[in-house]
Amino acid sequence: YHTNRYHRSAELDQKIKNNKNHVEDAKEFMNLMVGSIINRLLFSVRFTESNQEEFFRLKYEMDEAGRKTGLTELFVAPWMMKIPMVKSSYEKFLEPVKNLLDFVRNQVDERKEAIRSGEHIIVDEGTDYVDAYLKKMEDEEDNSNTSYTESSLLINLLDMWIAGQETTT
Q1: Measured between alpha carbons, how far is 2 from 34 in angstroms, rounded to an integer?
Q2: 121-144 pLDDT, tens per residue?
């Protein structure tokens, strides 16, 4: 975390020094930094220049969905989904959430594959939220009443990712 923060701060300082007449977008910098911190806590992966476009796309989609959300999207009764206009509006509202869910599912699938292949080993409680949760799932696999399921993991990750991003807007 500290190395990442220092690197990003040094990078911003250098941009400011090189372009004295150019105003750097601090909001973008802060969003990326906070997004990287959250992603590291959840998946041990930070956003860099090579994958920052994915972060900004997801963040923009979620921000827009939040901005455009109305009572219709929040309180849709099942019978209302038969009304084409309501269904279309609701599906547009859910699209960014589905995209973010695909993102977190992909992160979990990559981790599970790395564990299967031996590339990633969970030591003690793990290095991030996904490790700790997968470890707990393994510990609870004989418990038929456990709430530690993959679908719960995905929803928890989705909630934490969204909540973390809302702190910067």
Answers
A1: 13
A2: 999 989 999 999 999 999 999 999
